[in-house]
């Protein structure tokens, strides 16, 4: 199934979405690919506290991805070290169906900050392809500690101008 068959929509994230979104980060395979996760991804209280606060930050654009009236992920723009960055998390049950690409394409139409950067673990090929399909260009790499892997790994840096 491709995104042409799915009814994919974005809407501003609400506090009531956070319980569902928290469940996605409990998926160990998804966490491994995301790599740069919280130290304890099972700490629901810390998650809810952090994201409830972030929802009220005007510098952050948090959107919830909805497919056929159910939450299927999240996508956001945030600022780190003065640069706008993109992040997204897709329910593994809909991987490979074009959801991330469609959600990012739609998000970039409403979030017009440029340049905007994306970072992805060196071995997260699916996410690299999503960024490239949406016009991001790989501009470099960095190393950082990946909590989900318990070690420092390389991450690729992408940029959309």
Summarize the main sheet: 7 strands, mixed
Helix and strand pattern: EHHHEEEHEHEE
CATH class of the domain at 8-118: Alpha Beta
Any idea what the radius of gyration is? 15 Å
Keywords:
5 helices; seven-stranded mixed β-sheet; Aminopeptidase; 161 residues
Provide a descriptive summary of the structure in words.
This protein has 161 residues and is an alpha+beta fold. It has a domain at 8-118: Aminopeptidase. Helices cover 29% and strands 35% of the residues. The protein has helices at 18-24, 28-34, 44-55, 99-110, 125-133, and strands at residues 8-12, 61-67, 70-80, 83-90, 116-121, 137-146, 151-160. A 7-stranded mixed beta sheet has the order 1-2-3-4-5-7-6, sandwiched between helices. The longest helix has 12 residues, at 44-55. The chain is globular, with a radius of gyration of 15 Å.
What's the structural blueprint in terms of helices and strands?
Blueprint: E1 8-12, H1 18-24, H2 28-34, H3 44-55, E2 61-67, E3 70-80, E4 83-90, H4 99-110, E5 116-121, H5 125-133, E6 137-146, E7 151-160
Parallel strand pairs: 4-5
Antiparallel strand pairs: 1-2, 2-3, 3-4, 5-7, 6-7
Q: Short description, anyone?
A:
With 161 residues, the protein is α+β, with helices and mostly antiparallel strands. 29% of the residues lie in helices and 35% in strands.
